[in-house]
Design brief:
CATH class of the largest domain: Alpha Beta
Organism: Metabacillus malikii
Keywords: Membrane, Transmembrane, Transmembrane helix
Order of helices and strands: HHHHHEEHEHEEHHHHHHHH
Protein name: Peptidase MA-like domain-containing protein
Strand order of the largest sheet: 1-2-3-5-4
Strand content: 5-15%
Number of strands: 5
Distance between the termini: 98 Å
Amino acid sequence: MDIVKTISKHLLIFSLALIFLFLFFLIIFIFTHILLGLVISIILCLMSVGLFFFLVFDFVKGRNLVKISLPDTFNRRVSLSCFSLAFIFVSFYFLSIHLMIRMELGSNLSMNEKIQYYMLPLQKQPSDSIDYHAMKKNKLTHTYMNVTVYYDKDEEVLLPIIEEALTKADKLTTDIIGTLKDNEIELLLHSSPDELYEQTKLVKTMGYFDDPNDIVGIAITNLDEIISDQMPGAFYFQSTIMHEYTHYRLQAFIKEQGLFVYRIPLWFHEGVAEYIGMNNVDQRYYPFKDTSFQHLQTHEDWEEYRLDNYDVYLQSYYAIHFLINTYGEEIIKEIILETAKTNDFNKGFKKATGMNMDDLQSVYLLFEQSKNSENEDNSY
C-alpha cells in the first residue's frame, strides 16, 4: 500500500510539473519570435537533459549535492527526477513545434496562430486522416527533377507526359517567382477521381497538394485519352499536374520570405496555380457566380463557396490574369515580397499594386469582359 501511495504521489508531482512547465513556456513563447523561440527551445532541451543526468549522478553517487528541504532524501531525489522528466518532455515538445513551424509555416505568425499550432498535437486527430504509406505500398517509383512519382505498372506510359508537365510548370513558376531551393516531393497517381476520393475524402477534385507532407496527388480521368493526347483528358491531366506543382513552388517561395503560408489568402494561391495550369489557354469570358475575395481567405472559406456552385477557381484565375496583364508577371513576386515586409497581405497588395481589394473586386471582371468584346469584334 505504501508503494502505491509513493507511486501515486510522484505521478501527481510529474503531472503537476508537466502542466506548470507547459503553461509557463506557452506564455513565454507566444510573446517570442519563432526564430528566438527555436533557439530558446534548443537551450531548454539541453538544460533539461543535463539536469536529468546530473540528478541521476547525484542519486547513484549519493553526493546529496541538491539542497532542497523535503521530507527525506529518497523522496527529494525522486521528486526532482519527476520534475526533470517533465522538463525534458515539455522542452522537446516545444522544440518539435518550433521546428515544424519554421520549416512548414514561416516565421511571422500572429499570437493566435502560434497558440493554435502550440496546441495542435494536443487536439484530437481526425479518424479519417490520409494514409499515404498505404497508398504508396506496392507502387513503382520514378524520379524526375525533385519529384518521385508513385505509379502502377499500367500507368508507366504516363511518365513522359508527367515529365513534360513538370518541366513546363518548373519553367513558368521560375519565370514568375525566380529560382528556389527545391524540396524533394512525391507525386501519387490515383487510378480515378473516385479512388482519389475514397483515399483522401477530397470532394469533386482531380488533384491536391499536401504541404506538410510534400505530396502531390493526381487523378487519372481517362487513361486512353491521356495516352493518345485527346481532349479533354490529356489537357486536364497535364493542367492538374502543373496546377498542383505550382502550389508547391509558390508555397516554397512564400516560406523563403519567412511568411506564414496562409498569410497569403487562398484565392491568390489558387489563382496563380490556375494561371500556370491554364498556360496558353485562351479563356473565353462567360458570366459566372462569384463572391467577395474577402470570402476566399482560408481552406474552409474556399470549400464552402466551391461546393455551393461558386466558380472560385475561375474567379481567382481572372483576378491573377488581370494583375499580370496590368502590371506584368513580376507583380506576383512583388505582392509576396511587400506582404513579407509588413506581415499583412492587404498592405502588401496595396503597396505593390496601388489598389486595395475593393478596387480589384470592381475592375477584374471588367477587364475580362472588355477583352472578350475585342475578340468578338476582331472575329467579324
